Amino acid sequence: MSMLPVQLAHELEPAAASHRWLVEGLWAEAAVGIVGGEPKCCKSFLALDLAVAVASGAACLRRFAVAHPGPVLLYAAEDALHVVRERLQGIAEISGTDLRRLPIHVITAASVRLDVERDRASLHETVAAIRPRLLVLDPFVRLHRVDENVAGDVAPLLANLRTLQRELDTSVLLVHHARKGGHARAGQALRGSSELHAWGDSNLYLRRDRDKLWLSIEHRAAASVPALALTLATHGSAAALHVVDSSSTIAIDVVERTRTPADRVIDALAAADAPLGRRALRDACRMRSAAIGPVLVDLVASGRVVQHERGYVLASTPAASR
Questions:
Q1: What is the DSSP string of 277-321?
Q2: Longest Cα pair distance anywhere in the chain, in angstroms?
Q3: What is the pLDDT of residue 249?
Q4: pTM
Q5: Can you tell me the distance from the alpha carbon of 317 to that of 322, in angstroms, rounded to the nearest whole number?
Q6: Looking at residue 245, what is its pLDDT?
Q7: Which of 50, 111, 216, 271 has the highest local Cβ count within 10 Å?
Q8: CA-CA distance, 313 to 320, in Å (whole number)?
Q9: For the ranges 58-72, 173-187, 214-228, which has the lowest average pLDDT?
């Protein structure tokens, strides 16, 4: 057997600042991740906006710059091809570019399944031939027939996409659904196994609050920008997402006001590295003891939180099963 290659940490090549982002502040260079949200939250529109931005160099959402544009490979499993074309053309027009000049390649196969070896090989061969800067797969639920709630079933599919990303130096974007009516923080609300949330390097989450649409941004290796309010605006027959308010502070304040006590408890547990006792939770959530008690009772009864001798943990974390 041969030794694995190793290198001293200080000798590792740093990434050039201009190559750290595929879409500045929104999606990391050669990152895997998820665009998630409940139904009818414009997830596909956001994914297509990213596709047009990367292919053209135009700013995504008219806000986030693209320094190094390049080809995009897209598979839209739920939309008819003419709908995909119309949406892309509208976003391109609003972005000030011509769809006919953009290297956006659309997979027209009736089915692509990540749990089928032949389809995985075909996808790998297609990516190797086109060498896209971004691969968009929309939505994840149409790409397999495994149980999304079973980590052992989901993990191999995500690992295959990670391998593809590393071998072919491409970003991979999965569109995925969140559970309806969930009060957990964005990543914890994704439908299925927690493997999905953990997998992403850059994750974008859309949620509706009454008549407003909010975009939350997470990065594994970079600071996230504050939550942004979005709207789907039309210009003639074209439609595209736009940032509503340039004041991100206002967006954060509104989101904070709409968070329930259960939201605050879930967020505190999600951010913790170990179980939290009632006093620690009370301090983290800035709640009175009398107020946090009933919230914890409800969360435990609903199965979203588990109580141990050492404190409380989210039911979706490994510690919950110990």
A1: -HHHHHHHHT--HHHHHHHHHHHHHHTSEEEETTEEEETTSGGGG
A2: 65
A3: 39
A4: 0.73
A5: 10
A6: 67
A7: 50
A8: 6
A9: 173-187
